[in-house]
Amino acid sequence: MKNGLWGYCGAPLFGALALAVASASSSAQTQTPPAPPPSSASTPAKPTVTEPPPAVPTDESLKPADIAARPALVLHSSANWEDGYAKIREALEKLRASAQKAGLKPVDHAMAAFTETDDAGFKFDALLPVEAPSGAKPELINGAVLAATPAGKAIKFAHTGSYDDIDTTYDAITAYLDEKGLEATNIYLEDYRVEGKDASDQALKVDIYVFIK
User: Fold this and answer.
1) pTM of this prediction?
2) pLDDT tens-digit profile of 80-104?
3) φ, ψ (nearest 5 deg) of residue 9
């Protein structure tokens, strides 16, 4: 994610699906029985459909939902815009090492919650959901703390493809929020369903949760 994603600007992105249907011209009536239409007669054109962007498929699928907090290892970190994804990956690996050391079992996908941005970069919390520990407080390393994932009412969007291209998805999200008159909090949560090896990896799949005021 780059700095331009966080300015709440951009024209509304969404238009109704356009359907273009051309009808065949009718033959003129004559006094004699009508002849079969020539083989070159025009036929109705196939409708063309313009798909909405993948980040915002339909209004029906973008209803806000209540997201519950879950136990997680958390690491507060920061990065500049150029090496943002590398820093996120680095923080997540530190959390995995801490969980292994403490005997905590990770559950679900790793995440990052973005909390603050400026021209130079951003601050974020790397998150690794884990099973709630039983017994003594676990001993953690790498600066990890035991806390919880963000909670509240949020809309889930999706991004598939490289992290280098995630700006496009955030632009679509911003346009959608503007069009619907929705106001987001300062927390954007990325849930890495499939982590990319680096920022250019096209295998990346991310669910983006935008928490609504």
Assistant:
1) 0.73
2) 999 999 999 999 999 999 999 999 9
3) -145, 175
